[in-house]
Amino acid sequence: MTKWSRENILRELLRRDKANLPLTSAGSEGGVDHAMYQAASRIFGSWKNAVLAAGLPASRSRANTGWTPGKIIRLIRSIARRKRPLTAHEIEQRYGRITPVARRYFGSWSKAILAANVDPALLRRDGLWTESRILETLLTRALRNETLRRRDVQPRSLPEAATRVFGSWKAALQAAGLDTHKAVDERPRQLALHQAVILGKDPIRTEQKSSSSALRRSWSDDRILEEIRQRAAAHLPLAGSAVKIDRPDLYSAARRRFQDWKSALRAADIATAKLSE
User: pLDDT of 174-193, one tens digit each?
Assistant: First the structure.
């Protein structure tokens, strides 16, 4: 039996949202587990509050009793305020068959958007990728343990917009405070280990040698200082003890090239008076 903690409830809400499953209360068609509903209501104060805490619209917590013109307009305005996609396909995935009803009332989905006094440009996916939404989406993907490799991320408009806004996919991940190593394609590494086994070499020593060599090639003074400054800008811990755990690669490279961690911080113009190793 699942123990419904705050974290488990939020993870399950996000999982159901991703799978386009209903987020309505227990007892409604396709609704959530009764024990989860009770635990969420107790922990968050209400089921609606639990849905909101997961970053999802309150309307997802209610079973649709019928789309009236007023309800459709209110939904469109709510989605537009949150800068979410307004394409008919994505709306139907999340809210069911609302667009045919909208066409019946307004003539077309585009006319329903106009009736709500919302810019029709929001129908275009790419125009929705603001800096804040890119960062929010990256963090949500990390929470859901979804891939962060650029070539595998869907929709394709996300990495394209991230590269346009931040200069590169890696820079976008860094701006979100995420480990850029998770964006690396593992296949070259797996191929190297496979070849080592075929040639009768020790795969562990091969990987260690390869990783050490790659680290020496990739960590320049400028890159170390830039990563330190990015941590400071993102308000991430800068104490050596914290960085050693959360970014051991950065910590080791800084000590190797600047003698010690505090010297690297000083080189990056970061005050060290209140920091401890």
Answer: 888 887 765 544 444 444 44
